[in-house]
Amino acid sequence: MLTLYHAPNTRSVKVRWLLEEMGINYRLETRELQLGGGFHSQNVPGGKFPAVTDGDVVMNESAAIMEYILDRYGPAGLAPARDSSGWPLFLQWLHYAESTAFPVFQNIAFHSFQLAESMRAPVVVANETPWAKDILKHIDQQLAAGGYLLGSRFSAADIQLGFAVFMAQRIGLVDGYSHVAAWLQRLQQRPALARALAEP
């Protein structure tokens, strides 16, 4: 059975969300996030969240985990067929979340309120905020056509990027991006997300 090692408020939430959307039977192992121990210091396989084991398979990268689950257990309508015209767009948004959007939003959050005040660098917030606005504008334009990243169809890319944009919302960056705000509302209404956020 696939096992997800989970800590609330970490990237493991989006893997749990995907599993709930797909209705997959999985085992949840909840761990407490260890703060200050450095990268790869968590008490989970591979040393960081998210962590998934499936037989001999051990994975820690969220986008790779999501692709693996979709391939291994069936897309369940959450990804286009690999030979379809929608597959490249799906991949683009699935990886945009971690490679482009999340690092910018995270840096702003770190230096706005997450780090101890003595460690915050206002220059980081000043430098990253224009990038964050460009990212949100790009996402907003994509959502204008149909409400989700792939038009009218909800997909795993919405899960992956939605997690990142929820952070942008928490730091007050999504005001003025009406399509993004409406999209986040739709995501928040999904029962699978509520289950993924629930205490085990």
Please explain how this structure is put together.
- The two termini are 18 Å apart.
- This protein has two domains: 3-78, 3-Layer(aba) Sandwich (Glutaredoxin), CATH 3.40.30.10; 87-192, Glutathione S-transferase Yfyf (Class Pi), Chain A, domain 2 (Up-down Bundle), CATH 1.20.1050.10.
- 53% of the residues lie in helices and 8% in strands.
- It is of the alpha+beta class and 200 residues long.
- The chain has a four-stranded mixed β-sheet with strand order 2-1-3-4, with helices on one face.
- The mean pLDDT is 94.
- The chain has seven helices and four strands.
| Uncertain stretches of 5 or more adjacent residues | none
Helical percentage = 40-55%
Largest sheet: 4 strands, mixed
Tally of individual helices: 7
What would CATH call the class of the largest domain?
Answer: Mainly Alpha
Output mean pLDDT.
94
Number of strands: 4
Query: What is the subunit organization of this protein?
Result: single chain
Distance from first to last alpha carbon: 18 Å
